[in-house]
Structures are given as C-alpha cells and as structure tokens.
Design a protein that fits this description.
Strand 6, helix 10 and strand 7 form a beta-alpha-beta unit. It is built from 13 helices and 10 strands. The chain folds into 2 domains: about 1-160 and about 310-339, Glutamyl-tRNA reductase, N-terminal domain (Beta Polymerase, domain 2, 2-Layer Sandwich), CATH 3.30.460.30; about 165-295, 3-Layer(aba) Sandwich (Rossmann fold). The radius of gyration is 21 Å and the shape is globular. Helix 5 packs parallel to helix 7 (about 135-155). The protein has helices spanning about 15-20, 30-35, 60-75, 80-85, 95-105, 115-130, 135-155, 165-175, 190-205, 215-225, 235-240, 295-305, 310-339, and strands at about 1-10, 45-50, 50-60, 90, 185-190, 210-215, 230, 245-250, 270-275, 290. The strands form 2 sheets. It has a 6-stranded parallel beta sheet, covered by helices on one side. Helix content is about 45%, strand content about 15%. It is α/β, with parallel strands linked by helices and about 350 residues long. About 40% of the residues are buried.
Length: about 350
C-alpha cells in the first residue's frame, strides 16, 4: 500500500490557475462517490480551502491510480490532464506525510501559524471517514497530523497573535483606505471567513456594517449577534454600488459581481475578493480597486517574519511525531508478515 499526495497552494499557484481544479463543498461529495467506484484508489481525503487544493490517497499501483485521478479531475472540472499536471505538485509517502504535518502546524499557510487550517484538515478527514474512504494507514497519518498541529500550538509561539485570512483582508482595508471607519462596508457570504471579518470589524466598533447572503436566515442570524444591517441577496446586483467597501467570501462557482453592477456614479472604491473560485469578474478592476487572495500575500509576509523564529521548534516536533508514524507502520508490516 502506497500513500501519495498531489496538490498546490496559493503560495505556489496564482488563484486564476488554482480555481480551475478547486472543488467546492457541494462538489466534493460527488467526487468522493466517484472514488468509491474504482478499485485503483483505496482511500482519499480532499483538502480544499481558499488557499489550497490537495488530494491525499492510498493505492497499490501508483501509475494506474494517478492516471485515474487526473482523468477524473479532468472530467469533473473540464480541464486537460496536461494543465492539471502543470498545476499540481506530486509527493511520495514521506513527502506527503511531511507536508501534511507542516500544513496542520501552520508552516504552509499564507498566514503563517494561523489556526483555521487545523479545523479545515479535521473537517476534511472526518468527511472522508463518513464516506468510508480512510483505512488504517491514512487514519494514522491524519490523526497524528492533527495531534501534531495541536501540540505545536501548545509548545511553541507560532500561533501567538496569528492572523487569519479575514484579518489580513481587514489589514488590507486599513492600508488602502485610511478613512475606512467612515465608509459603508458590505460583507457577502456567511461562512467562516465572512463571519470572522464581521466579528473583527464589529469588535473594532465599525458603525456601518452590512451583510448579504444567499440564505437570508443565516445572514439574519449573524446580524442579530451584532449591530449589522442585512441586504437581501436578490438586491445585491442593484445595490452593490451603494457600498464603499465590499468583501466577497462565498463558495459560488460563478462571478457574483462584474462591471454591470457598477457605473460612473458608483460609491464602491475597494472590493476584496476572498473567494476560490473568485467571486468577482477580473474586469471589475476597471471600476474600482480589486484585491484577490493573491493580493494579500505581501501583507501576510509581514506577519510571517514575526514568528518564523519558531520554525525550528516546530520542525523538531514534526520530526518526532513522524518517527512515531514510521515506527507504527513498521510494526504493522512486521505483524502482517508473521500472520
């Protein structure tokens, strides 16, 4: 049994390329159902966030499994296998394990040391468990990786004061608009990033916060916890231009805002698009200052330098934990031979 991983992240691949192979929450179950129809791949965990696209799997025949996986991604996303190969980085078992432990520890995040990734890995793993797509080896690796992420945050300072993508987005607003406190801000979406952005802005005392979401109940539930006005999603295309700053954080497959939503009289100055796939048509940059996840890297870099001194401590913990995985695997293989 071999463990393999292929993937990429915003650190290596522009969002315009990464979104071509990104699977949203609604699409992941269908993909996992397809995995269950083949005997070429035994286990599979998909890790999909706004920053990364990663496939972890086990197989007996590496070439056959990889061919099936790339062809299935190609069919699902309507992209050529050649393009997929140019985007994804392939890793063998040791590299995949090392990478996953670095991911859960926050070393691979755009926002160095951030905590969100630990929850995202756990959720991705548990989803595959529910689909019965994890065997003993992948179970051990993911459970150890999550435990390592927790240990790293307990025993080192890597996450002290760590930002999230939402916090970096607000930092971008503060840098680009010094008078942002007097501006009307609209957050579109009700997922984790949208909620964190709203809570951060609300805690700062921003007086003009608005939320818009396809599910009005979710928007109203968030709004009730803070002094936030709800904009009906059906009015977004008409009313978007009334807001000075718009934060887009939805899982929509299609653009929800483009140049048709704005004109010469529009108030909108800044649009922060945190979606992968992107929520705003790139042509919108002709109407306002459009910032995507790619554009947040510089701000995130400043955050990295503050905590990189913890990296050696983190790597020591990772090495120790991976050695335990290797010892467990060797023991299991020995027991299997005896049996």
């Amino acid at each position: 049994m071999f463990v393999r991983q292929c993937g990429t992240s915003i650190k290596r691949t522009p969002v315009i390329e990464m979104e071509k192979i990104h699977f949203g929450k609604q699409a992941i179950p269908d993909f996992l159902d397809k995995v269950k129809t083949t005997n070429l791949i035994q286990d599979m965990v998909l890790l999909m966030t706004c920053n990364r696209v990663e496939f972890y799997y086990t197989c007996e025949d590496i070439n056959a499994a990889k061919t099936w996986l790339y062809n299935t991604i190609s069919e699902s996303k309507n992209i050529s296998v050649e393009d997929i190969k140019s985007i994804l980085i392939e890793r063998d078992e040791n590299e995949a394990t090392q990478h996953l432990f670095a991911v859960t520890s926050g070393l691979e995040s755009m926002v160095y040391g951030e905590n969100e990734i630990l929850t995202q890995v756990k959720d991705s793993y548990h989803r595959s468990v529910e689909f019965k797509l994890t065997g003993p080896l992948l179970n051990k690796i993911f459970q150890k990786a999550v435990a390592t992420g927790k240990r790293v945050r307990t025993e080192t300072e890597i996450s002290r004061g760590a930002y999230s993508v939402s916090s970096i987005a607000i930092e971008a607003i503060r840098e680009k608009m010094l008078d942002y406190f007097s501006r009307k801000i609209l957050v579109v979406g009700a997922g984790l990033m949208a909620r964190r952005a709203l809570k951060k802005l609300s805690a700062m005392g921003h007086p003009e916060l608005h939320i818009c979401n396809r599910s009005k109940n979710k928007a109203e539930s968030l709004a009730s916890d803070m002094e936030i006005t709800v904009l009906d999603y059906n009015l977004l295309s008409q009313k978007a231009s009334d807001y000075d700053i718009i934060i887009l954080a939805t899982s929509s497959k299609n653009y929800i805002l483009d140049t048709k939503n704005f004109n010469a009289d529009s108030k909108t100055i800044l649009v922060l698009d945190l979606g992968v796939p992107r929520n705003a048509d790139p042509s919108l940059s002709s109407n306002c200052n459009l910032v995507t996840v790619d554009g947040l890297k510089d701000i995130a870099e400043k955050n990295v330098k503050k905590r990189q001194g913890e990296k050696d401590k983190v790597l020591d913990i990772i090495r120790e934990e991976i050695e335990q995985v290797h010892a467990w695997k060797s023991y299991k293989e020995t027991q299997h031979k005896i049996a």
